[in-house]
Structures are given as structure tokens and as C-alpha cells.
From TrEMBL:
The lineage of its organism: Eukaryota, Metazoa, Chordata, Craniata, Vertebrata. It comes from the Eukaryota. One of its GO terms (biological process) is SCF complex assembly. Residues 315-346 are annotated as: Disordered. Keywords: Acetylation, Nucleus, Repeat, Ubl conjugation pathway. This is Cullin associated and neddylation dissociated 2 (putative). Residues 318-346 have a biased composition (Acidic residues).
């Protein structure tokens, strides 16, 4: 016998003792054993333990019974299935016992066992088997109405079981429904309530037929409002509807037209409990079926407005009286009102609370009606801020916060200058409400109730976020409220933290001037909080103090407020915190950061406190725990324009900083490099050379490809040191340059590192005398290319040539006297027949960069060399020459542009390369210098719009886009004429050209483009497929990069977009390929482009979409071609996260295409690519399934439950699903770039 089994058998022996203490201790020890993961019971032990625990459930001692019940939980997972069934049988038998105590214990036991059963999703059948065993016995217990206690317990257990394991009990759903429905008429309230809960859970999991039966039963039982019926019956039925609405509201959509008018009528009966249930039902309907509730919104709104102020037992004084009362002793008056209205029977507050919650559901489910809500609901909510009941007040605040969040401008929104857009007008209305909100909150901010004040702060924080600057004129009220809460020491520290967090937010959104006059009032309580004994308050207060310093004495503007009266006490409070070493880590870090801001912004006024502050920071720099915040504080001080004297700490700080560059902690290395750069900029020559040498010795190791960001900061610092202390660089310039050249040969070199390298190289040759000779640097840069074997192909990546060329140009720009010689040498290299391909490519790319600084001398020869190179056999040389021709031309337009245009006319075979040159010239030249040539270029480009090659037309479109930017008001309208008059290829080229006008940054052309965009979008109705595809690509670019351009036009565009997602049979044709027939769908590209637009709309214009209509087209896409299904699976996963309610409503229809994809088989003998495509499809479909399962109610859908069990029973699908769930915890791969 194993040790564990022996130990357990001895415990079982003690459990038979006549001494209750022995039995209790033995059971407690058994509990400890069972909770160990390592315990393994053999069959005999299992049987004995189960038998003994079931016996102890009937023990005379209540404590032993309770402990035995608790043991059942861990035991379930340790014994075999048939033993669990034995336990369940015994518990069910005890449920019907005569003894009340035994019945209670059995009920608790069943609930414990059920809660410990493995969920069906794990693939274990135990839960299903146990539930099937229990269900029959529970329905019998519920149907026998002899003992209410048994009935209630059975209903409780059944409700619990249906909520966790609804779907596996499908076979019992019908009998359960027929057992539960009669309980709605039970004379006992407790039975009715539990039956209502159980029916709600059943409604979520049952089949559609049973759901319809349940809904019809409830609707048929609901009498007409004038028919005689007991209030209790009506209340129960409405509560049942509310419960079904909350658990399975997405299935009620079809019944709402019959249901809502009935519930509206019952709202008018004089019964507060019934009104509460009606409003709760409406809340559930609005959340789960927003679209179907559309026709009823106005009636629900008026009911909410009516019942939000339903308070028959209380007379709210007029505003005048309120103001009078404020002058009286508010404590006394509040006490009186509480005594007078402590009416326990008053249920009206529940009605008001339900109405406020319903208003919140109304606002969040119908963002399209916001302008209307601002006119009707907002004023009513503001009036209700004076609500006397705390719970209701919290929900009123909550509803107004929902309104504010819905009003917040969407991402990428630009307020149009000419006409106020929809969002602009909403914000304007909201701005008008601000004084009313502040007036309504004035008394609440000084309310004795902490919860009321917290609600005020939350609401005001949200308001400041939506309308920054709108609270400045109301600062006296807000400051008084903040100071009141900061001084409130009678209650918990939470309210002080909330007040500090609100003040911090306010400093970020309101202009600094608004705080100037209030600083004498505000600062003392904040400083008191800085020295508070509770670490969270102190940390929050230090953050506020830091924000105060940053906002009131900014470094980029002259000081508007004299800091003299305040700087002393701020410094004392902060230094006291900085000196203390026994503090919480968060307080230490905030104290260091706050000191950094104080010294950086007001160091010139600190006087004698400056040196102690710096020395304390130096001390914190030596401490491993505080070194990172100390480095950041030092950066702030060094970068300050006050140019403070840091001599007391420099000599010691630099070696410490140098040692940090060797540490593994990346954040520390980055912060240290930033600090060193700031110190080199500000202190320059006063840095001790020996310390600088120590720092520089660490740098070569940091200039490496392993961490490009660190490398960029290291090179930036090197450039700064080169300018301020060139002598220090003598020792390290060699190792640094060799590392830098290795870095330049990386094909993954980011733009930031390249710019930093250019700066460093320019600094090296720019010092007097130069740290490194110009010719040596050029030779170092070009040697990797020149040293390659002359005949060998390019061993370096294309990107490396561009990087090296940029560096050559940077050096030429830094030494203008050398530029002409460099250009001459490059021209010689380019034309020499002995030069390798790599040398020629580098020469042309360098000429492209240098050409603009070299002057007209070598440019005359250049034309011949460049034209000759355009005919080179090497594609790389041709591309480099084309690029060089454009870039050099941009620097000398009068000489080059007419020549280039002439060549385009004369050389049709080289047209593609020459157009690329033109594109570069148009992009690089200043717009004003291009104006004289605009007409010639315009004419030439439109002559080439009808070319046969799509690639050439694409370059023409890009050229046209760049040309329009030369003179937008004149040239953009001419696009319209071309759209109207041109042939199909011209029309698609024009639309593509407009696409190139859209950038993700604000641009002066945006307002003009916005006025024309509607007419360009009309091309979605063009008969030509290519034009429609180009229009969709243009629309997608607009939605992705600058949604504000198209947001207001979506009502007109969306029907046309959805039209393009449909499969058109007339575009599908059969092509004969030898003995085989192959189907070709000419409309596929357009459909794919339309679905890509839909995906982009989800990211940036979700608020403007009718999701139900959107989902109809996603549903069609789930059955389309491979490419489109891949897109729609990703969209479905996104929709499940963004708007679960509408997805839930049609989940049954969405599952079928997913199931079809997951279970599809590839024909035997198919090529490898077919198998790969099918695997990718399955993986994508499974991701969508995993996303759907994150919606809580989806698992209860019978069809989804069936599909889930199918996935678990198929090893291949189960493995795939598991791998997707594992990768879901890693960063998401579902996001797409579709610009």
C-alpha cells in the first residue's frame, strides 16, 4: 500500500470515531490531502473515501457535515466517473429526505459537485453524464409541489446547471421547459423568481423551435393591459421577458414588434416594481437587438424621461430655494431631509435607477441618434444630477458619461473650416451644456457622500477629454471642489486620489492661465498630500506637483506667473520625499521625476536648494533600484534651456553613466544615451575630457545591428561629441567607423539610423581640422562596392547602395569645395566600361543625391552618360540611372526637364524608365519652379494614359498626382473633365492619380480634395471594371489614411460599395485549356477590393456603419472565393470584438460557412499549393471561431455547441484550435495593412 493510501485509510478510521473532534480533524486532514495535485487514489481507496464522505454528510455534528460537503469539490477531480455518479445519486436521494438539514447539505453538495465538473469545452463527457443523471430527478422535485424548500433548492441547482452546461442537455430542454413554465404561476414569489432565472439560461441554450414556444407562451400569457390579471402574474411574466432578454436577447428580435407595445402599456400601470421590470426589459432589448428596437426608440425615450424623474414622495425645491439653502447650515438640513424621507416602502428609486440604466443602453446602442439625444436626454440627465438616492445618482452620472464618450470625435477627424461637420455641431451643442453641468455639479462636489463626488470627478474628467479647454472659465467651482476633497481626512484615501487624478487631467486639458489665480488655494493641500503617510496618495500628489510645474512654468514660453512665492515650499516638500529612503518604490520614482521637473523648469530660482537636489539625484543614480528614473531626471535637467551649472555632479555622474551602457537593461541603455546626448549639448566643453573618453570607449559595442534604436542614439551622441569635443574622438573614431560601416551594409537599416549616420559623418569632416579626412571617409564608404569582384554579381543588397549613396552625398554637402571633384569621379566610374554593375549602381545613386549640390559643370556630360545607361543590360543599372536622371533634373529644371520630356516623346521603348525619372523630378523639385512646365507635362502624361501596359499607366498616375500638387486649385478641377470625357484607361488613371493625393499626414490640399471627393466616388457606377477597381483602391486609401475625407459621404457610397461585393454571373467565363475547362471570374479583383474597403471601414468609420447590413455582405463573403473568404474570416474576428451584439444575433447563420471550411477536404492528387491554401483557410476560419467564442453568450448557442463538440472530436481540428488559442495569447496577427 502506498504512503498516501495508508495515510488516507488511517484518516478514514478516525472518521468513524465517536468523538466529533476526531471526526472533524480527520475530515480537515482529508481535505488538505485531496487539494494536493500529486495525490493518486487506487480504486479501493476511492470507494472507501466516497462511502465515508457520503456517510459524514448525515453526521450529527453540523461542522463535520459542512466540512464533508467542502471535500466533495476537490474529490470530483480525483475519482473515476462512476464514483462521481454514485455521489450524485446519493445527494439527489438526500434532496428528497424528510430532514431539512440533510436537504440543505445535499443541495450545497450538488452545487459544489457541479461547480467542480470539467466544462464540456474540455472534451470531457463527465459533466454531460452527471447532468443527465441529475436533470430527471430535479424536474421531478420541481414538479412535486409538496415541499417548497426542495423545490427552491432544485430550481437553484437547475439554474446553475443550465448557465454552465446548457448545450449538452439538449435532449432534456423540452422537458425542462414544460416543467419550468407552470412554476411561473406558483403562489410563492421565491419559486417564481428562481423559475424566471432558470428560463433565462434555458432560453440561451435551447433550439429555435423551443425558443419560439417559450416566447409565444409568454406573449400569450401576457393579458392586454385592460384585461383583468393579478399584478403578481404580470410582474413575473415581464421579469421573465427581462431575464430572457438579458441571457438570449439576440434571439428575441423577431418577437419585439408584438412585445414592446405590451410592455409599454404595462409601464403605465401604477406599480413601481412592474415599472422597474419593464424598464429593465427595455434595457436588455436595446443592448441585444438595437436594430429591431429602432421603431420603438422614441416611445422608450419618452418613458425613460418620464420615469427618470418619478419621485412621488419627495418635493425637489426650485433652483432659487436650493441657492437659499446653500447659505444655511447644509449639515443640518441634510440631516432633517434624511430623517423625514427614510421611507422603507418607497420603491420609486428603483424605477429611476432602471430608467437611468435604460437611457445609458439607449445612447450606447444608437450612436446615430446622438444629435437628437443631446436635445432630449442630455438636459434631462443634467437636471437629475440633484437626485437624492446615491445609487440612482451614480447611474445618472454613468448615462451622461456614456453620452460624452459617444460624442468624442473619432480618430483621424478633422474639423472642416468651411462647414461645421456632424461631429463639429455635436461638440458645439455639448459646449453649450457645460455651464449647466457645472451649475448642477456645484453642490455635488461638496456632497458628504464620497460616491457622489467620485461620480462628479469621473464625469468632469470625461468632459475635459471630449472638450479640452471648456472648463477653464468654471475653474473657481472646480478648484473649490478639489480642495474640499483633498482636505477631507474623515473618509478613505480613495476620494483624495480621485481628486488628485482629476486635477492632473485638468492641468493637461485646460490652459495654464486658468490656474494662476487659484494656485495659492490649490498648492497647500497638494503639498500636504505629498507628505501623506499613505504611499498611493503621496505618489499621486507628486505626479500632480510635477504636472503643475510643467504646465504653469513651461520651458517653451516666457513665464507668465512669478514662481518666487511657491518654489520654496514645493522644493522643501519634494526634497523631503527624495531624502527618505524607507519609501515605497513608486513614491521614490515619482519624487525623483518631480525633482527633475522642478530643477529643469525652475532651477534658476531654487537658490541654495539646487546643489543638494543635484547631489541627491547623483546619489539615486548610484542605486540600482532608482537609477532609471534618476537618469531620466538628469536628461530633463540637462536639456533645460535654463543652462544650469551641473559642475558639482558632472565628474562623478559621467563614469556612472558610462557603466550603465554595459548593462543588459535596454531601457537603461536608451535613457543613458539620451542623457549623455543632452549633457553633451548643454555642457559641451565643460565636460571633463577623461570622463568623456570613458563614455566613448563603451560606444563601438553599441553601434551594432542587434539593436538599431540603441545604435541610432549612440551615433547621435557621437555626432554631438564630435561637434563639442572633437579631440576626444581621436581614439575611438577608427573602431566606431568600422562598426558603422558594418551597420551600413545591413539591408534592414532604418531611416533614423541612416539620418544619424549622415549627421555623424558630416560632423567628422566639419570640424577644424577634420577628425577624419574627406577622401579617406569617401574611400571607406565606397570600398565595399569597389572591392567586389568586377564580374561578380551584386553581393550587396539593393538597399545598401542607397544607404551608401546617401552618406556620400551627405559628405559632399558638408564639403562643398570637394563636391565637384566627387561628381566628376562618379561620372567617370559610371561611364567606364571596366566598372562592375555594383560600382555603376552606386555611382548613379550617388549622383542622384550629389547632383543637386554639384552645380552645372558636370551636368552637361551627365545627360549622355545617363541616357546610355538606360540601355544597359543590367536592370539594376537601368533603374539607378532612371532615378539619377530624375533627381539630378530636379536640381536643374531649365536644362533637364525639356530634355527629359523630349526623350519621352522620342523613345517609346524606354518610356517606362523615363516616366520614372519624371516622377522623381516632380517629387524632388520645388512646386513653384515646376509651374512654367505644368501644361507641357500635363499634355504629355494624358497622351500616355491609354498605354497598353498597366505598369506604365501606374507611373503616369503617380506623375499626375505629384503634378496636381504644383497648383491644386487649377489642376484638380481639370481631373473631373478628364473623367467625364476620357476613355476607360484614362478614367482609371485619373482615379489612381487622385489616390496619390491622399497622405496620412494633414496636407493643404485636404479641404479642396474633400470638396471633390464625392464626384470622384461616382466612378463606382462606371461601366468599366478597371475604373471601378481603381475607385475602390482610392476609397480604401482615403478610409485608411484620412477617414475625415469620406465620413460624411458614407450614406451615398456604402450602397455602391456593397453592390460590388456581389458575385456577378455575367463576369464568369469558361476557358478551354487543352482537354480541360477552366473557370475565370473577371469580377474577382473588384470584389476583393470592395471587401478590403469594408475591412478598412471597420477600423476607422465603425460609428457610421449599419452593422446588420454590413454583416449581410460579410456573410456572403464567407462563401466566396479563397481570397475573399480569407478577408471575411479576419473581418468576422474583428467584428466579434468590436460589436458582439449584432454578431451574436446571427451566429447560427455564420457558423455554417465556417464549419464547411473547417471540414472541407482537398481532392486526392491535388498539387501541394492546394493543400497549403486549404490549411491556411482552415487556420483563418478557426481564428474566426476562436474570436466568436470570446462573446460570452455564443457558447450557449446549440449550433455553436454542436460545432465545438465536432472540433473536439476531430483530432486534426482540435490540435489546430489549440494552437490558435495558444497564439492568441501572443500579439495578434489578424491586423492588416490595406492602404
Amino acid at each position: 500500500m502506498s504512503t498516501a493510501a495508508f495515510h488516507i485509510s488511517s484518516l478514514l478510521e478516525k472518521m468513524t470515531s465517536s468523538d466529533k473532534d476526531f471526526r472533524f480533524m480527520a475530515t480537515s486532514d482529508l481535505m488538505s490531502e485531496l487539494q494536493k495535485d500529486s495525490i493518486q487514489l487506487d480504486e479501493d481507496s476511492e470507494r472507501k473515501v466516497v462511502k465515508m464522505l457520503l456517510r459524514l454528510l448525515e453526521d450529527k455534528n453540523g461542522e463535520v457535515q459542512n466540512l464533508a460537503v467542502k471535500c466533495l469539490g476537490p474529490l470530483v477531480g480525483k475519482v473515476k466517473e462512476y464514483q462521481v455518479e454514485t455521489i450524485v445519486d446519493a445527494l439527489c436521494a438526500n434532496m428528497r429526505s424528510e430532514k431539512e438539514q440533510l436537504r440543505d447539505i445535499a443541495g450545497i453538495g450538488l452545487k459544489t459537485v457541479l461547480s467542480e465538473l470539467p466544462p464540456a469545452a474540455t472534451g470531457s463527457g463527465l459533466a454531460t453524464n452527471v447532468c443527465r443523471k441529475i436533470t430527471g430527478q430535479l424536474t421531478n422535485a420541481i414538479a412535486q409541489q409538496e415541499d417548497v424548500a426542495v423545490q427552491l433548492e432544485a430550481l437553484d441547482i437547475l439554474s446553475d446547471m443550465l448557465s454552465r452546461l446548457g448545450a449538452p442537455l439538449a435532449a432534456f430542454h423540452a422537458s425542462l421547459l414544460h416543467c419550468l413554465l407552470p412554476q411561473l404561476s406558483s403562489p410563492r414569489l421565491a419559486v417564481r423568481k428562481r423559475a424566471v432565472g432558470a428560463l433565462g439560461h434555458l432560453a440561451a441554450a435551447c433550439s429555435t423551435d423551443l425558443f419560439v414556444e417559450l416566447a409565444d407562451h409568454l406573449l400569450d400569457r401576457l393579458p392586454g393591459p385592460r384585461a383583468p390579471a393579478s399584478p403578481a402574474t404580470i410582474r413575473t411574466l415581464i421579469q421573465c421577458l427581462g431575464s430572457v432578454g438579458r441571457q438570449a436577447g439576440h434571439r428575441l428580435g423577431a418577437h419585439l414588434d408584438r412585445l414592446v407595445p405590451l410592455v409599454e402599456e404595462f409601464c403605465k400601470l401604477d406599480d413601481d416594481e412592474l415599472r422597474e421590470s419593464c424598464l429593465q426589459a427595455f434595457e436588455a432589448f436595446l443592448k441585444k437587438c438595437p436594430k429591431e428596437m429602432g421603431p420603438h426608440v422614441s416611445k422608450v425615450t419618452s418613458l425613460c424621461l418620464q420615469y427618470m424623474k418619478h419621485d412621488p414622495n419627495y418635493n425637489y425645491d426650485s433652483d432659487g430655494d436650493e441657492e437659499q439653502m446653500e447659505t444655511e447650515d447644509s449639515e443640518c438640513s441634510e440631516q432633517e431631509s434624511e430623517d423625514e424621507y427614510s421611507d422603507d416602502d418607497d420603491m420609486s428609486w428603483k424605477v429611476r435607477r432602471a430608467a437611468a440604466k435604460c437611457v445609458a443602453a439607449l445612447i450606447s446602442s444608437r450612436p446615430d441618434l446622438l444629435p437628437e439625444f443631446h436635445g432630449t436626454l442630455a438636459p434631462a440627465l443634467i437636471r437629475r444630477f440633484r437626485e437624492r438616492e446615491e445609487n440612482v445618482k451614480a447611474d445618472v452620472f454613468g448615462a451622461y458619461i456614456v453620452l460624452l464618450r459617444q460624442t468624442r470625435p473619432p480618430k483621424g477627424w478633422l474639423e472642416a473650416v468651411e462647414e461645421p461637420t456632424q461631429t463639429g455641431s455635436r461638440l458645439h451643442v455639448l459646449r453649450g451644456q457645460v455651464p449647466l453641468v457645472i451649475k448642477a455639479l456645484q453642490r455635488q462636489l461638496k456632497d458628504r457622500s464620497i460616491r457622489a463626488r467620485q461620480g462628479c470627478f469621473s464625469l468632469l474628467t470625461e468632459l475635459a477629454g471630449v472638450l479640452p479647454g471648456s472648463l477653464a472659465e468654471h475653474m473657481p467651482v472646480l478648484v473649490a471642489g478639489i480642495v474640499f476633497s483633498l482636505a477631507d481626512r474623515s473618509s478613505s484615501s480613495t476620494i483624495r486620489m480621485d481628486a488628485l487624478a482629476f486635477l492632473q487631467g485638468l492641468l493637461g486639458t485646460e490652459p495654464a492661465e486658468a490656474f494662476h489665480s487659484h494656485l495659492p488655494t490649490l498648492l497647500p493641500p497638494v503639498l500636504t498630500c505629498v507628505s501623506d503617510s499613505f504611499y498611493k496618495v503621496a505618489a499621486e500628489a507628486l505626479l500632480v506637483l510635477q504636472e503643475l510645474v510643467r504646465a504653469l512654468w513651461p520651458l517653451d514660453r516666457p513665464r507668465m506667473l512669478d514662481p518666487e512665492p511657491y518654489v520654496g515650499e514645493m522644493s522643501v516638500a519634494t526634497l523631503a520625499r527624495l531624502r527618505a529612503t524607507d519609501l515605497d518604490q513608486e513614491v521614490k520614482e515619482r519624487a525623483i521625476s518631480c525633482t527633475g521637473h522642478l530643477v529643469g523648469h525652475l532651477g534658476d530660482r531654487l537658490g541654495d536648494d539646487l546643489e543638494p537636489s543635484l547631489l541627491l539625484l547623483l546619489d539615486r543614480l548610484r542605486n540600482e533600484i532608482t537609477r532609471l528614473p534618476a537618469v531620466k531626471a538628469l536628461t530633463l535637467i540637462a536639456a533645460s534651456p535654463l543652462r544650469l551649472d551641473l559642475q558639482p555632479v558632472l565628474a562623478e555622474a559621467l563614469p556612472i553613466l558610462a557603466s550603465f551602457l554595459r548593462k543588459n537593461q535596454r531601457a537603461l541603455r536608451l535613457a543613458t544615451l539620451a542623457a549623455l546626448d543632452a549633457l553633451a549639448h548643454s555642457q559641451g566643453l565643460s565636460l571633463p575630457p577623461s570622463a568623456v573618453q570613458a563614455v566613448l570607449a563603451e560606444l563601438p559595442a553599441l553601434v551594432s545591428e542587434s539593436d538599431m534604436h540603441v545604435a541610432q542614439l549612440a551615433v547621435d551622441f557621437l555626432a554631438t561629441v564630435t561637434q563639442v569635443q572633437p579631440a576626444s574622438l581621436a581614439k575611438v573614431s577608427g573602431p566606431v567607423l568600422s562598426e558603422l560601416l558594418r551597420l551600413l551594409r545591413s539591408p534592414l537599416l532604418p531611416a533614423g539610423v541612416l539620418v544619424a549616420t549622415e549627421g555623424f559623418l558630416q560632423a567628422l569632416v566639419g570640424t577644424r581640422p577634420p577628425c577624419v579626412d574627406y577622401a579617406k571617409l569617401i574611400s571607406l564608404l565606397t570600398s565595399p562596392v569597389y572591392n567586389q569582384a568586377a564580374d561578380g554579381g551584386s553581393a550587396l543588397h539593393k538597399q545598401v547602395y542607397h544607404s551608401l549613396a546617401r552618406c556620400v552625398a551627405a559628405l559632399a554637402a558638408a564639403c562643398p569645395q570637394e563636391a565637384a571633384g566627387t561628381a566628376d569621379r562618379l561620372v567617370c566610374d559610371a561611364r567606364s566600361p571596366h566598372s562592375s554593375t555594383g560600382v555603376k549602381v552606386l555611382a548613379f545613386l550617388s549622383l542622384a543625391e550629389v547632383g543637386q549640390v554639384a552645380g552645372p559643370g558636370p551636368q552637361r556630360e551627365l545627360k549622355a552618360v545617363l541616357l546610355e545607361a538606360l540601355g544597359s543590360p543590367s536592370e539594376d543599372v537601368r533603374a539607378a540611372a532612371s532615378y539619377a536622371l530624375g533627381r539630378v533634373g530636379a536640381g536643374n529644371l531649365p536644362d533637364f526637364l525639356p530634355f527629359l520630356l523630349g526623350q519621352i516623346e522620342a523613345e517609346p521603348r524606354r518610356q517606362y524608365l523615363l516616366l520614372h525619372s519624371l516622377r522623381e523630378a516632380l517629387g524632388a523639385a520645388p512646386p513653384d519652379s515646376l509651374k512654367p512646365y505644368a501644361e507641357d507635362i500635363w499634355t504629355l502624361l494624358f497622351q500616355r494614359c491609354e498605354g497598353a501596359e498597366e505598369g506604365t499607366r501606374g507611373v503616369v498616375a503617380e506623375c499626375l498626382g505629384k503634378l496636381v500638387l504644383v497648383n491644386p486649385p487649377f489642376l484638380l478641377p481639370r481631373f473631373q473633365k478628364q473623367l467625364a470625357a476620357g476613355r476607360p484607361h484614362t478614367r482609371s488613371t485619373v482615379i489612381t492619380a487622385v489616390k496619390f493625393l491622399i497622405s496620412d499626414q494633414p496636407h493643404p490640399i485636404d479641404p479642396l480634395l474633400k470638396s471633390f471627393i464625392g464626384e470622384f466616388m461616382d466612378s463606382l457606377q462606371d461601366p468599366d471594371l478597371n475604373v471601378r477597381r481603381a475607385t475602390l483602391a482610392f476609397f480604401n486609401s482615403a478610409v485608411h489614411n484620412k477617414p475625415s475625407l469620406v465620413r460624411d459621404l458614407l450614406d451615398d457610397i456604402l450602397p455602391l460599395l456593397y453592390q460590388e461585393t456581389k458575385i456577378r454571373r455575367d463576369l464568369i467565363r469558361e476557358v478551354e485549356m487543352g482537354p480541360f475547362k477552366h473557370t475565370v471570374d473577371d469580377g474577382l479583383d473588384v470584389r476583393k477590393a470592395a471587401f478590403e474597403c469594408m475591412y478598412s471601414l471597420l477600423e476607422s468609420c465603425l460609428g457610421q456603419l449599419d452593422i446588420c447590413e454590413f454583416l449581410n455582405h460579410v456573410e456572403d463573403g464567407l462563401k466566396d472565393h479563397y481570397d475573399i473568404r480569407m478577408l471575411t474570416f479576419i473581418m468576422l474576428a474583428r467584428l466579434a470584438t468590436l460589436c458582439p451584439a449584432p454578431v451574436l444575433q446571427r451566429v447560427d447563420r455564420l457558423i455554417e460557412p465556417l464549419r464547411a471550411t473547417c471540414t472541407a477536404k482537398v481532392k486526392a492528387g491535388s498539387v501541394k499549393q492546394e493543400f497549403e491554401k486549404q490549411d491556411e483557410l482552415k487556420r483563418s476560419a478557426m481564428r474566426a471561431v476562436a474570436a466568436l467564442l470570446t462573446i460570452p453568450e455564443v457558447g450557449k448557442s446549440p449550433i455553436m455547441a454542436d460545432f465545438s463538440s465536432q472540433i473536439r472530436s476531430n483530432p486534426e481540428l482540435a490540435a489546430l484550435f489549440e494552437s490558435i488559442q495558444d497564439s492568441a495569447s501572443a500579439p495578434s496577427t489578424d491586423s492588416m495593412e490595406l492602404s
